[in-house]
Specification:
Blueprint: H1 4-13, E1 16-23, H2 31-44, E2 49-53, H3 61-64, E3 73-74, E4 78-79, E5 82-83, E6 86-90, H4 92-95, H5 105-117, E7 123-129, H6 136-144, E8 149-154, H7 158-174, E9 178-186, E10 195-198, H8 203-206, H9 210-214, H10 217-226
Helix pairs in contact: 1-5, 2-10, 5-6
Bound molecules: adenosine-5'-diphosphate and magnesium ion.
Adenosine-5'-diphosphate (ADP) binds near residues 24, 33, 60, 197 and 218.
């Protein structure tokens, strides 16, 4: 069946130069913090940036950015509010403090609906914060954003690495480009991979404040990665 929203989505996304999907499959490895601080850094560098939080069950970018009270403007769809220069859209705009208990095709529908109504305008980068796992959300996003590239996250834990290696094999078979693999919470003394973000014990105190987040060691490590995107 032809879904008329698909062609609307194509039009809505047509002004976006690069879509970067931040994934990692495991939870708690820093996908959301990386997405938020990455978007803030790109905006600080003068880029036009959007941030889309698609973690239906665990939306957290609004908390990380301290943007609990921002809401989109409605005007032939919705116009994302700006947080420190980042055009921000989250499923939390619609769900408030409640988790969204969606399953199967409902998830696909919600993503399609969201992408069909958001007016991103022209963007150099759209950063997409993903839920853990290769859920329906992940597969839909990769299908709908035809030119998406993956920034894959892991931690020094062998468990996270093993899960990531399975993910990478899948992306390869689906022909989805992986632009980088980031080791987060790395031991600063032994840097093994090209892209790494050291463990930053001060990150928690900086949450909910974009200004503070940009001054963390986490941000200075991530800046080196963001410059390569
Ligand atoms: N490099 C780091 N150093 C210290 N704490 C970190 C680091 N990266 C992420 N965290 C913390 O880990 C927790 C999980 O991060 P989050 O971005 O929510 O993970 P995910 O989105 O992958 O579930 C948060 O409390 C975050 O502040
Ligand atoms: Mg998250």
């Amino acid at each position: 069946m032809i879904d008329p929203r698909t062609s609307v989505i194509e039009k809505r996304l047509s002004g976006i130069k690069k879509t970067i999907v931040v994934t990692g499959w495991k939870g708690g490895i820093g996908k959301s913090v990386t997405s938020c601080v990455g978007a803030l850094l790109l905006a600080e560098m003068g880029k036009k940036v959007g941030l889309l939080d698609l973690d239906f069950a665990g939306a957290s970018c609004h908390l990380i950015l301290g943007a609990k009270e921002v809401f989109p403007k409605e005007e032939k769809g919705i116009i994302p509010p700006e947080v420190n220069g980042v055009r921000f859209v989250s499923i939390s705009f619609f769900s408030g403090e409640n988790a969204v208990p969606l399953r199967g095709s409902e998830v696909s529908n919600a993503i399609i609906e969201l992408l069909a109504i958001v007016q991103w305008g022209n963007l150099d980068y759209l950063i997409v914060d993903m839920p853990p796992g290769i859920s329906d959300t992940a597969l839909d996003v990769l299908r709908l954003f035809t030119r998406a590239q993956v920034l894959a996250l892991t931690t020094p834990s062998p468990v996270a690495r093993d899960v990531l290696s399975r993910a990478l094999r899948l992306y390869k078979s689906l022909k989805i480009p992986v632009i980088g693999i980031v080791e987060n919470m790395a031991d600063r003394k032994k840097k093994e991979v090209k892209f790494s973000i050291g463990f930053d014990k001060n990150i928690e105190q900086a949450l909910a404040s974009p200004g503070k987040l940009l001054k963390t060691r986490f941000a200075s490590d991530l800046k080196k990665i963001v410059k390569c995107l």
